[in-house]
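user:
I keep going back and forth on a fold encoding question. Separate attempts, laid side by side, tell us more than any discussion would. Would you put together a sequence-and-structure record for a protein of your own picking? Write it directly below this note and I will take it from there.

assistant:
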Amino acid sequence: MKVLHNRSYRSKWKFILCIITILIVPGQIAIASNQSEDSNVNVNTEWTNNPVVEVFYVAVKEMPASSDVINFNLTSTKCPDLLFYDLTTDCRFESLNFSINNECQIPATSFEYTTSMYTGNDNMSRISWLGQPYCVVDNNEENMHIARLLIDEYMDNAHMIHDGEVLTLHEGFAITAFNFFENDDDKVSFLLTRNGKEKDRRTINQDELYKYNLDINSSNQIENGILRFYLEAIFSSGYTNFVKINSIRLISSNVQVINNNESFSFMLDGSKISWLGQPYYVIKHDSNGLTAARLLIDDSIDHCHRLKKGDTLFLPDGYAITVLEIHPHNRACLPTNKRFNYGYFSFLLTQYGKEIDSRTVNGSECYEYRLDLNGNGKNDNWVLKFNAGVIYPRDIFSDDFIEINSLKLISPDLLRIEDVNEMNIVLEGYKTNIENDGMTLTVVRDNITKNIPFSGDGTVSFMDNWFTVRVNSASDAVAVSSAVIVSDTYELVGAVEYLNSGHADVNLTSKDNPATLYYDLENAQGHETLNLSIDNNYYSSYMDVPYRISPYSFVYTTRIYPTRDHNDLKIAWLGEPYIVIEHDSSTVVINKFLIDERSDDCYQLSMDNPLNLPYGFNLIASINDCNIAWFSVIKDGLEVYNDTAGEGDIFQYKEDLNSNGINDNLVLSFNVKSLNKSGRVP
């Protein structure tokens, strides 16, 4: 049984609800999207941009009638949402193969992950690793040294940096433009810092490529170009000075070494995982278990918060940042032999109104609030951190204000999992092979006689929780899924096609492209299709647009299908599941499934612990001496329905959604698995 919700640790009584299906459909025909909006969070308001776990299918297979084995052969072209596809170089060297036998096991001999080196358009050696782009720092037949490509932009990705502004990058790096030369409009100075400390200072000309090298491979030679960008243009006037740069490439300074013919295990330290449907940050992972903290905020570099003096930014778990003082940077041009003044600001960090830290931070610096979360007696685990960006003076805006980005917050209340096997993530038992003169890396199972079983809920995850394989309840369909933790805008690559002689046909189906179109795994049904053609644009009025989608080629189809028990009719619409309220030859009325779960997706409730559901719904319960539970359905603070149910009963809440005057349309349904009036919730 998989427990999805457990917040009560002490109670006079307890009962456990096993929710097979929750249907919350208060409105008709909602339009769904795979992208979440990214916007600045207003100050002096409650935080609403919590990270969420988005799980999407990347491949689906159904059990063929003529075979009792399902084979998965995934490639970068077929599954670009899991395996990395480099669109700029047409390189697709990542593949993943495995099978599932009739005993519902993955044979160890069938598991093989392969990736190979290739050369990018910039002549840099690259490789994909677990679906992410990497730079190859060094390689031979014995080992391979790789570093993550954090930013890999091209000419059409431009950034404007004004005089004295800070462009914040990953791993604490920041770029500042200054010293716009009055008598020479073709050169400008750049300052590179990391965590607020100066790393490089240089004056370069327009149309020049900036490169910063660092010895990240411990070769005693500063030969690894970890940062580069192209100075496209310089704009200088009496009112404003700024530069336009593009083609930023940033390589991580953390190098991963993979040795040939070596047993290989994955560790989750410092990684983000999904646990019981919620995002967590792993504090510590060893042979004794796993310690993780709920991930409350996970902003990207592009997500900025602007604060002026006196502003308070309220965060989850009672945290708040209050700006006390702001001292902007000095905008005057400085000689290159003088230190640039970024400016600084002072702030107060509180939790539930109690001061826990106060600090003065310079622009471009990284702030971290640390506690002892791993029990080593040192405050060496970050709980809250952010990057200080530009400090703007009031001669540009009405008030001085500071921009902070990359805000991240975890809960100090820890989750401890003593038995990591409970998570059913296969972290150990791998073996690496480096072949083809050090160009190809293969990962297989080191014990080919030990097959990989599925857990009780039909799932098993691999490597560093990179992907999950799930078998449905009827064991007639299998899906490969991936989970991403999202708090900002994200993009999902669903399909790749090639242009042959300026033409390409895109034909997507639910079964072949489940990341884009909906596939119902439990019912083994997928009926969405999307067809379109891309060809050369011959219209003279659009000569600047080389390709077009012919309007006659664009066709989207979907159809109604019954559930496996034939109790409901469902339909997929724009990649999301819906229930059919009514239909005839001219009209189909549908409502969206907000939650649609299996019998092994369970929740624990107690008297003081209501279950919060989407769309403003809450479920409140109590239990009487006859071991009967009373449930109250709350919508936006008001009770809309109540009823009793006993152990093994099905609770249903219905409304009139098709305007026939009868409450005969299911909104909420669940099974009550067990009730217990005394004891403690486990």
